[in-house]
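User: Can you predict the 3D structure for this chain?
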Amino acid sequence: MHHRNTFKMVLHHEVPLDPAVSPTETELRIKGIMEKLDQLIPPRPFTHVSSTTSATHSKATLLSPQDTYCRGDQLDVLLEVRDHLGRRKEYGGDFLRARMSSPALKAGASGKVTDFNNGTYLVSFTLFWEGRVSLSLLLILPSEGVSALWRARNQGYDRVIFTGQFASGTLQVNTDCALILNSSAELCENLDTRVQEAFY
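Assistant: Here is the predicted structure, written as structure tokens:
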């Protein structure tokens, strides 16, 4: 499938910003989502790796274990995360991946992770098939790393510059591009109308 970008010439130094122009519905939705994510991913500064989440020191406990389970039952695991010094974490935000598998059946499914934001997580698996299953809880990134990546993602857009290659027929132009317009020069705006994202 070929996606065609829309290019339009904008004379930024001649077009005054109109504060009365309201944001589009898409921009408002994106802003709302970003604000919710800011609340879900609070700053988690740390001074040493020993205070970050450790998979080795964390503890997983099967809740209400039974001798046998039926297809469709739910298997719940309580995960208590600890740091590298063995201290229980008092907040959540870790990026965890929960998987259930039966290699002999070539079957696998994801578990649902519920973060209680106090260092404990409920990991729920629905038993979709009969037979033995293996459970896996993988710490992809500690909450401190998630927070650092989120901060990095939201800072410095005005300093991101990349080389864009634009072609039309036999004509080809390479030029510096940015995510934020920070120039009064005559520039092209590449607007993806599907998601209302632009670069200059």
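Confidence is low (pLDDT under 50) at residues 1-20. The chain has two helices and twelve strands.
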